[in-house]
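Hi U.,

Before I forget, here's the chain from the pilot set. I'm dumping it here mostly so it's searchable later in email.
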Amino acid sequence: MADFLDVLGQKARKRVKEGYYKVTKQIIAPTKGLKEAVLECKNAPIISEIKVASPTMGVIRKKIDVNKVAIAMEKGGAIGISVLTEPKHFKGSIDTFIKVRSQVDLPLLMKDIVVNRTQIEAAAKMGANAILLIEALFKRGYCDCDVHRMIAEAHSQKLEVLLEILTEEEFISAIKTEADLIGINNRDLRTLEVDLEVTRRILTKNCINEKLIVSESGIKSSADVRFLHECGAHAFLVGSSIMRSSNIQKMVKELVLAL
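Structure:
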């Protein structure tokens, strides 16, 4: 039976065929990547996400000056910025990513529903430092190659990989790959339900093999950051709660100072 993850996979394949990810201009990314930024961080490593809308919340922030938001996140102490480029359900865009790249020197993560190596090439040309891959999309056959080859392709383009998982089974598989970071999504993309306990359950039962773990979704407060840190997460990707804040810089700083 099809679920929302199938919808995302199908729409992504269609966008690739329609040429959405054709990027011509080459932008050089700063050399410092997400992994290095996480390891060097003395507080809570927050990857702050620019997200205009979500499938569950609809439009999160109606009027947004992307340049000002990116600068506020950087001043707040974020170690990196995730920028959504998926246009249908998250209202992201390639143009937004390019604008953010022009404003900050932080490592940037291109967050999209990646199913094709064309999207890897686009990320590299836009000046991304890292790209998100979703383990479940490979399992369901939406991608044009297997996860190992896609990771190798990203690395050949000088991109780090944040490999996102939804289940314990996927986690066990993911830590055996060459992914630079493993993301545990507390939001089940199949049902869109959120539960921070997902990170706790997976990390208390499994060895992480020295991988850097990023807990994603559902993080609303400093207390959430501390809880996930105690569970074993090394970094934290936060979108909606930051984007809904009336003072983005202050919100990011509060999360950064949680540890």
